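Summary for the funding panel

The consortium committed to producing paired sequence-structure records for every protein in the target list. Below we show the first two records in order, beginning with the earlier of the two.
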Amino acid sequence: MKIALVGDIMVSRFFGVFDNDCFMKVASEISECDVALGNLETVFHDYQFPPAAESGGSWMRCPPSVAGSLKEIGFSMLSLANNHAGDWGIAGMETTKRSL
């Protein structure tokens, strides 16, 4: 069994914009694994609600469609417990869970 464990995944848009060799090599390695786990250091939402009054240092966010890009690369598990989980309040957490 081949397992990939990566650190923070800090994305803000779908992966098609990253057509460089370095990113594609990493994505290729992850896609060859049976299990891939990473820490989702952002929130999925459609930008239709305000950010929380306080954040984990910035208000991380990306469109819900990026969840599909993570799956296509091969991520099978994502940790959501981090300092950016509440950047967009309860609504951001709920949208993230629905997207995944």
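The next record, for a separate protein in the list, is shown here:
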Amino acid sequence: GGRERLVPLNTSARTALDRYLAATTGEGRITVKWLFPSKSAQGHLTRQRLAQDLKALAEEAGLDLERVSPHVLRHAFASHLLDRGADLRSVQQLLGHADISTTEIYTHIHQERLRSLYDRFHPRA
């Protein structure tokens, strides 16, 4: 959407990024405008190409292609954060939602999952 977003990186992610940069630039520094440069007209990996590559990887892994997409990864990311205690405002910022009500959709899914786990595992359920 043309928005600038912050991406927090833990130590493992930072190490992987450093390795990627060293392998692609030879010096470990970004020397191009894009993190994922491409020979495309845009000069970077497009969202459409990412979706194509993701589908190809899913097919190689034997996954159901209908259940794999960049949007599903985005949804899993948000759900994972909420499951591990992230606050809604932080998730909103990370997803780039202008309105908190857009992000609140994830809380309903999160609450349903909590209810399901409670019903399944709590001795007094």
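Regarding this second record: Helices lie at 11-25, 47-60, 70-83, 88-95, 100-121. The longest helix spans residues 100-121.
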